Amino acid sequence: MNNELVSLGIEDLGLNLNPENIADLELFLQEMGRWNQVHNLTAIEGEQNSIRLHLIDSITVLPIMRQFLTDPGPSIADLGSGGGLPAIPIAILQPGWHLTLIEAIRKKTAFLQHVRGKLGLKNIQVLSERVEVVGKNQSGQFDAVISRAFTNLANFLELSLPLLKPEGLVFAMKAKRADEELQDVCMDDWRLVADVPLKIPNLAVERRLLVLSPVRKLPL
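Structure for Ribosomal RNA small subunit methyltransferase G, as requested:
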């Protein structure tokens, strides 16, 4: 697997991965593949596709996130975490960041808890709850919110808002429909901070990371 990760261009992302990082990413994919056979965590099967479409896709966002999350130990919520993407790879590579994985489907949260223990990831918390419930219980607790293939952008922003601190950021991982989804967002309520194209090595797909912040209105 190590050679596989290298051949697929993971080093081209400039993340300075060490052997322990590679081993943990490898173990995560192995566990996902094993559980997926029984629990159908994801529709993408096969090691090659898993590496390309899951792991590398998830960590391409890290250089941009590092630019914006400059304070030590930011608190990040991953909405609809599913099989742990992008949160688990991010947690592996950013042990100082605190990630809360929110997932309502219990077979998926069981997998997330399993991976947390298997990899010894002390910087993640798994919540088996609907996002709306967490928004009420942990209002304004997060520096950032992220999601990959969870819901459309307008709905994602609506769900993210209660979770964010006043200066919080939303990281939306999107594909070619990003412009169409942006048209449905009320830009009186949100500011587009960055729109960054993401290049996945050796994979010809369009990916973009949208970074948005809420426009906090003063009370009348």
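Residues 2-214 form a domain with the Rossmann fold fold (CATH 3.40.50.150).
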